[in-house]
Design a protein that fits this description.
globular, alpha/beta, 29% strand, 212 residues, homodimer, Glucose Oxidase, domain 1, 5 helices
Chain lengths: 212, 212
């Protein structure tokens, strides 16, 4: 069985969302200083790197990350390659209507965004490819339960009113962001996306893998 | 398919190892204060709650948590119930020699420790049941690749020289600590234990599940 790790490595080199807390990892105990073990502490925003947005990220009445059912986070998944789109474009309803999504409940969009991860680009890019609000409504109507994308948000940068997030989170669609899909061919896989079990949190860093 | 979540919920209520960093989660943006979203930041020791120890936790030349192969973290696993042991006792070689472990590479010990999690006990207990050094050597010789236990360390509290950790980590055996096995009957499962992909870290908080 082939396992693809589609998770970004967490380090201080990783670009974070403008205004978000930066990541820090420091050793509170260090073998090199004569301590008996290495012991590190970590500080980060819960939407850092590969992560899941919980409904309560944008919805006052939404559940926290620890309440997302495991049987949505694990199961069959399709990786769709959207190579025709370039920087700043959105995946919209007309484009999605051309796809045959029968029986699919988990969908990951592989776009040109992934090349920034492959290049270990430390800059935050505002012109990433994202899911349009009408695309989100269409996918909800199609019965999609989990959507993933290969940049730090599913929604275009600074989108007024954040309709893509609201549409998905109001309908309890799981949003998996910050994937690196550069090594993954389009096709069908088993997805395993496990967020930290942070009580009541609006999101959590997540380890995500695909199995073929 | 049945999925058991064997992960401790991460919150400020969870007991941490004496001397370790405490967990804090705070909102840097809050819907209730008129912000457009809830956004939290998290600070914690990497050995908090359910977590994996990387070889470099105790071995200067050991690899970091991001280098542990996924095919050890995912796969068939046996849950062994060690109900005869009481507080402060260790799982030692004579006890392990009685078991039939042929073909097993991943092993989780369910002990009386799990009741503290079931009771949501906020106290750190020093007299948890642990794996003895001779038990660790025996399991390495048997070809075990991953060992899990239901308290915050595999090794008894303040054990001089930490021989259990050294034996396991020198041999690249994955140590999965802080499991809550109270709801899981003994038997065979598929384990999925995914740590955060923290570059070079000595450990990482982990979401762990069993599938039957």
């Amino acid at each position: 069985m082939n396992i693809y790790d589609i998770t970004l490595p967490l380090s201080e080199d990783l670009p974070t969302w403008p205004g978000d807390s930066s990541l820090s990892m420091t050793r509170s105990s260090d073998l090199a200083k004569g301590d008996i073990a290495n012991v590190s502490k970590l500080a980060l925003g819960v939407h850092t790197g590969t992560h899941i947005d919980a409904p309560c990220h944008f919805e006052a009445e939404g559940v926290g990350i620890d309440q997302i059912p495991l049987d949505i986070l694990i199961g069959p998944c399709r990786v769709l390659e959207m190579t025709a789109l370039s920087e700043g474009q959105e995946i919209d309803r007309p484009r999605l209507e051309q796809l045959e999504l029968g029986g699919i409940t988990r969908l990951l969009f592989k776009t040109r965004n992934s090349r920034w991860w492959m290049q270990k680009d430390q800059t935050f890019h505002e012109d990433f490819i994202a899911l349009a609000a009408d695309g989100a409504s269409y996918l909800v109507a199609q019965g999609i339960k989990l959507i993933g994308i290969d940049y730090l948000s599913i929604e275009k940068f600074d989108n007024p009113g954040h309709p893509t997030h609201h549409t998905l989170l109001k309908n309890n669609v799981v949003i998996l962001e910050g994937l690196n899909l550069s090594d993954v061919p389009a096709g069908d896989y088993e997805l395993i996306a496990l967020p930290l079990k942070l009580k009541g949190a609006d999101g959590a860093p997540t380890r995500a893998v695909l199995r073929k």
